[in-house]
Amino acid sequence: MGNDGKAKKAWKDEFLKSCSKYESANASGRKIEALYDPSDVASLDYERDLGYPGEYPFTRGVYSSMHRGRVWTMRQFSGYGSASDSNKRYHFLLDRGQTGLSVAFDMPTIMGYDSDHERSEGEVGMCGVAIDSLEDMETLFDGIPLDKVSTSMTINAPAAMLLAFYICVGEKQGVSSDRLRGTIQNDILKEYIAQKSWIFPPEPSMRIITDILTFSSDHVPRWNTISISGYHIREAGSTAAQELAFTLADGFAYVEAGIAAGLDVDTFAPRLSFFFNSHLDFFEEIAKYRAARRIWARHMKEKYGARKKESLLVRFHTQTAGCTLTAQQPENNIMRTAYQALAAAIGGTQSLHTNSMDETLALPSEKAVQIALRTQQVLAHETGVTNTIDPLAGSYYVENLTNQLEADAEEYFRKIEDLGGVTKAIDMGFFQKEISDAAYGYQKAIEQKTRIVVGVNEYVIDDEQIDIDLLRIDPEVEKEQCKVLTRLRSRRDNAAAQAALDELGKAARGTDNLMPRIVECSRRYCTLGEMIGVLKAVFGVYKEPIVY
Amino acid sequence: MERKIRVLVAKPGLDGHDRGAKVVASALRDAGMEVVYTGLHQTPEMIVEAAIQEDVDVVGLSILSGAHMVLFPKIMKLLKEQGAGDKLVVGGGIIPEDDIQELNKAGVTKVFTPGTTTTEIVEYIKTEMASRA
Amino acid sequence: MAIPREELLKRFAGGQRAALSKIITLVENHATSFPDVLDELYPRTGKAYRIGVTGPPGAGKSTLVSSLVQTIRTKEKTVGVIAVDPSSPFTGGALLGDRIRMQDIGTDPGVFVRSMATRGSLGGLAEAAGDVADVMDAFGKDVVITETVGVGQCELDIAEACYTTVVVIVPESGDAVQAMKAGLMEIADILVINKSDREGAEQIARQTRAMFELRDERNGWDPPVILTVAFKGDGIPELYEHIEKHRQFLAESGLLERHRQSNVEATIKAIVEGDLHSKTWNEATLGRLESLVGDVMVGKVTPRQASGVILKMIEGRQEGG
Description:
The structure holds 3 protein chains of 3 kinds. In chain A, 51% of the residues lie in helices and 8% in strands.
């Protein structure tokens, strides 16, 4: 690079005359230079490292036509109150042009408690919809034909039960399970790492997951069985590189579990999908998505011997970063979200959720949700961002960042392997410590003002009056939900329900696949809490390690 | 010996969002306080029992599930019943302004919403403790 | 806000947990408002059996303690737990997280858990922890368990001041070696290999057993090596059995009495040394120290001569007083 190097040095000298900050740290603490040039991507080989969209290693995108062929799915995560409240919201969103559903469940559902359990007090319907049994699920999808929509469900520890409810709603609507399309998050590893909504210990949790993988490849072949999620890892405070590395490491752990359970990697890997965050550092986020595709493809092909092209693809959903939203001057969140959405679009996302401006204050109101959805629609239809695929390829900066992120991830994979794998590293608190250290560092940067957050530590409005209508959940929802449960328990065939639960317990103690039993329990209107209760008795519950 | 400020940082409710609780706990530690962290998914009974056994000066509650209007007042009630109503109780999380006023009335003296700096929290606790000494 | 001392003692005697807690705070802070609180309580001590649990970070000590407490509770005995964690030497703050793993015993009225920071006290930590154990003893706890991280001498002292010292390690290679280096093996009355469902547990057990056989018998007690999986409760009843056996052994051999004697001796010494320390450094002596440091730096006097000056000051004060 002889001459190039000299020219760059001359430029750099000039630069330093007027500005001392040649390097600065981005939101992840990564050192970013003021300029990148061909020397920063000298090792890049187009065929080997980028390829064409839809071609190995898929850095530029998983499909050949990407957003030209079809704009990403606009999928707003929502759910609150009772099943009928949420059903109304879904109809509202579908009427306004949303193209997929994404169900948010309340905490009792996520933790496997029925609404009338004492631990559910005050939580029912609060941060999502309360689902206790198939009956609620029937109400939730009332008037929504399951063969016409794809539905994503953010559910993990009880994912098997919610999938079973969905299959049963399909049966009632006359839609066979092989026609159902959608996703269950079902990513328990990131629960231990970041989101902390676990029920069982890792070992039985992984068994439930492999049972789902096996069952689904036979009966629900179009269903995405795990949405391997970096979103929550990032929300818990990780850097971009940690999000990338930990998510893919989790993904590899599922692949290894599937293979260990005797499955051919190509039978289940095509149904694995991903879920990433879109945070504030625009270019690093784009590089992250590109690196994710390349790393996954390489490992799946070279390490796990996948032969099907579909097994190599990182198909992913993106949500803009909730943790970057501020309670101060909440309208500013609209702009933050828009930039993050743009990064996701350029990064080649398959679906997108844009956060509502009021989410630091309460669940989003109808108005706020509409603005969030419109943000995506403006992006897709007005800005021209869909016109060309992977438009930043070849940028010295973005390619260099992509390489850096890949190298960082590989470094983390080595560390995790040295610790004995993902579950061991969880037990040792490795991920948790990495993330909380990063979170604390991020917070300190804000407080020392090395990071500016508009409206929080700069451009502050004193005595700000917040003028936004908030959505409030009626406490009556909880009472009503408890009544529904009491009625259900008195009306259903309790002997049949109990028999189904006994069968589930028997299967849990043995090695039979749990899924058919769970579907049978659902048909018999066993509640979520009853099913989880049976499994807790066999599997035990997970306890949090001490990490700080 | 200098009197140490002892703080219980607790997560009532079912949500697992402990980023805020842990960041605050670390910041309080770095400000020289002794912080007892309870971990996730605590019932009001567990929190109150811990506050009593640890004889903390301050109870910090972090919640993002929306159940604050049920759980916070319940904790306040139990603290009073157990003769520990004198502790400074503060909260944090996604809590709307109207609710904050209600919680203030119930005895949760201060509620910190997203975007609050840890410096503010540290200062608040130090000032309150100084005025009580 | 402060409760009058008679009222506080009355509530303590009446079994009120809040009073126990307040008194622990007073003792921990060496509160000048109630300096003789321990004298008031001392006649009521001596009944609780004291168990020390120590081991390297990550060995699962808190989980083990929680599980052990549950076993002890089935024998109708009440338990006090003192969980000691280090204070930051820079800020003096501390993050005490042992309760996270003790949720199963958190609301049992027969159990009282207190987290304690080391507060960088000058070797007085073992005494401070012993004082807190005395308070729990006086309150009527049948068993007091003190848990410390086995990293420093202070922490080892705490564990050793207990009648039965349980050392916890995990099968990971190197853990046993580390424990040996840290002097943990020497103080173990019982060695626990926790997380023993992991690879290598049996092997470590064999190695440590062989090691115990090689060393001089400690007054006729051969430390057993026990395999546990604390979070499942596996091996915990056996652990408790061995604690009981050790207790019997100590009682029958007269060692328990000797143990108490040496604890009393250590306590008296610590109080005397603590008092001397606080009496030594006051405004006058600290002021003199500063000027003497200057003198040493410019070569006027040696450090030894300087200390002589201060010692004279103190002696003079004592004679005068």
